[in-house]
Amino acid sequence: MTECTQSSFGFAALYQREVVAQFDGGDITTDAGGVLRREVDRRLSLSERWAAGFTDHRRADQIEHQVRELVAQRVYGLALGYEDLNDHDQLRADPLMGVLVGKAEPQGTDRHRPQDQGKAGAGKSTLNRLELTPANADAKARYKKIVYDGDALDRLLVDLFLEAHDQPPERIVLDLDATDDPIHGNQEGRFFHGYYREYCYLPLYIISGEFVLCARLRSSNIDASAGALEEVQRIVPQIRARWPQVQMVLRGDGGFSREAIMSWCEEHDVHYVFGLAQNKRLLKIVGRPLQDAKLKFEEQQKAARVFSEFSYQTRKTWRRERRVVAKAEHLEKGANPRFVVTSLSAEQCAAQALYEELYCARGEMENRIKEQQLALLADRTSTELMRSNQLRLYFSTFAYQLMQGLRRLGLQGTEMAQAQCQTIRLRLLKIGAQIRVTVRRVCLSLAAGYPFRAIFAQVYANLMGTA
Fold it and tell me: Does residue 210 share a domain with residue 126?
């Protein structure tokens, strides 16, 4: 790469004024709003709790970056939109990143090696070793010595959900869904998926409201429900240990209406609402409602729905009859029947309400998955191994927790209370500021032209408890 020694850049004049640019502004960041996220982290003790899921086999006298600092740097980078480890070779020199991860000297003046002076954060190589540490690493390993405990991180996701409620809710809905995570190399677990028509992973998500309770990376050569029962068997007892009386409902599309899952739910007092793939028998059963919907459409010239319900059992796979709710719908393009199987009785939830209000509400969890994949870079699973790619998925989930905490604790009562992660990042976190570090203070001089001052002030007041 060509080295440029030019220090001043002249541009077209503005009437009688010259326009000149110089790299002499000192320490300036574009991510000053990250200090709000730091307050969310502090209130929920997130960094410390994430770090507790790792075992550090490094020699204590040679450590410059604690596990908490490494994990926080990786998560904050994703939260601020920096997708690659390469980005951290520049971010490590930003004093703001040193402030966010809790470095005693945010300008890196205490680094041991001369080439690291002025760079408080860890570089890409150190972060890469964190991600690539094998499960069996110990103190004798040469470079990769920080091992993560997936079980501990899984428990933490559920604990954070439980702690966010002051009182146990009467009912919670656990949404199950699988999505595609395209891969473009020869990663472990690489398979072609016929439905998505690409090589991808098929991660499983379990979400309740805005909280991610499970993000499990899987190969794509499996059924969409593979492993879902095991995750539910882990999550449900953890929730019941804290909330023994809460009613739980599993909700998912037709990929989860499997005998093993439904039978387990029936045996453990967990309700379910799952989509059910149509077949000739089901279409025959709803023949009359479909005809009625067609007649209503022809009469009103607009979409018509007729709901019905019946007991149904497959010929081979189900061990018992179950309640099925059918939506017989006719649109301009023709018939559009849909089916849902549920353990909820008609007294507990009528057919139309079960479909329109309960089942269709599962679309909201798809927005949460999109937020994590698109805004928080959950699809950057480009390392060679499944284990390290699972860690990247954890990091993205932690970044989502930070954003969700900011939305829940800081943005309530503002016009951005329901804003998506990308909007929050652009409006609230991406703020230009000059940083001055002295013995007693770290001072951020925020851009005077920042247009969302009022929201920033309200978020600050909410987080500090002064609202």
Answer: no
Residue 386 forms part of a structural domain: no
Mean pLDDT of 38-51: 96
pLDDT tens digit sequence for 398-408: 999 999 999 99
In a domain, 1, yes or no: no
Number of Cβ within a 10 Å radius of residue 103: 22
Question: 192 and 84 share a domain?
Answer: no
Can you read off the two tokens belonging to residue 409?
């604790």
